Amino acid sequence: MQISEHHMPQTKEHLLASRVGEIVANDFRSAHLFSQFGIDFCCGGGISLERAIKRFDVDEAQLIEALMALGIEGEKQQGLDQLPLSELLDYIEATHHSFVREKAPLLIEYSQKMVRAHGEHYDEIKPFAGWIRALIEDLMPHLMKEEQILFPAIRAMANGEQVNGCFGHIGNPINAMEHEHDQASEIIERLRTLTNDFTPPAHACTTWRICYATLEEFVADLHQHIHVENNILFPKALAI
Ligand SMILES: [Fe+2]
Ligand SMILES: [Fe+2]
C-alpha cells in the first residue's frame, strides 16, 4: 500500500478553501484573529474562508498575512493524505456522503416551499428550484456508483485482490466520476450566479434565507468532497 509522505503546504489557496470552523478547531489562535477581523466563526463556521471574507467584507490580504504569520495552516488534510485507502474510503462515506444524504432532502423541501409561496412573484425562484433538483438528481446516483462500484473496486485493489469489474481499467470509472464532479460544479456555478453568491434579497422570507444558508454549507462540503476524491483518493488508486 502506498502512503504518501506529502504534507499539505501552508498556502493561501489552502487557507481560502478551508472551512472557518475547521481552521478554528485545528488552531484556536485563529479564533482571536477572526474576531478581530469581524468574522463570525460560530454561526458561519461551515463556509470556506474565501466565502467568509466576502460575506463579512474583510481585507483578504491582511487576514491571510496575519494567519500565515502565526503559521496557521487551515483545514488538516495531512491526515487524509496519510490514511490507508480503505480508511480514506470509510472517511469519505461517513462524512461527505452522509452529509449529502442528510442535506439533500432539506434543499428539495425548502426550494419547493419557496416555489409554492413565491414562485409566481419572483422570477429566480422556479429556475433556482429546478437547478437544486438537477444537482440532487445528479448527486444521488453518483454516490451510489461510488459506493457500489468504484469504492469496492479500490478496496479490493488495495488488498491486492484481482478486480473483475465490468468497467475494464480502474481509470475508466475514475474518469467517469471526475466528469460527474465537473457537471456538479457547473450546476453549482449556475446556482451561485442565480442566488447572487447565496445572498438572500432583503424581502426574502425565513425559508428562503434558510435555504440559501443550507445551500452555501452544502456547496462548501461538496467542494471539499470533490477535492478529496479528485486530488487524494483518485491519484492514490491509480498509483496502485
Ligand atoms: Fe463521493
Ligand atoms: Fe464523487
From TrEMBL:
Name all Hemerythrin-like domain ranges: 95-237
- Where in or outside the cell is it found? Cytoplasm
What's the chief localization of this chain?
Answer: cytoplasm
Please name the InterPro entries in this protein's record. Hemerythrin-like (IPR012312), RIC_family (IPR019903)
Spell out the Gene3D superfamilies in the cross-references. nmb1532 protein domain like
Keyword annotations of the record: Cytoplasm, Iron, Metal-binding
Query: Which Pfam families does the record associate with it?
Result: Hemerythrin, ScdA_N
Q: What is this protein called?
A: Iron-sulfur cluster repair di-iron protein
Q: Which organism is it from?
A: Shewanella marisflavi
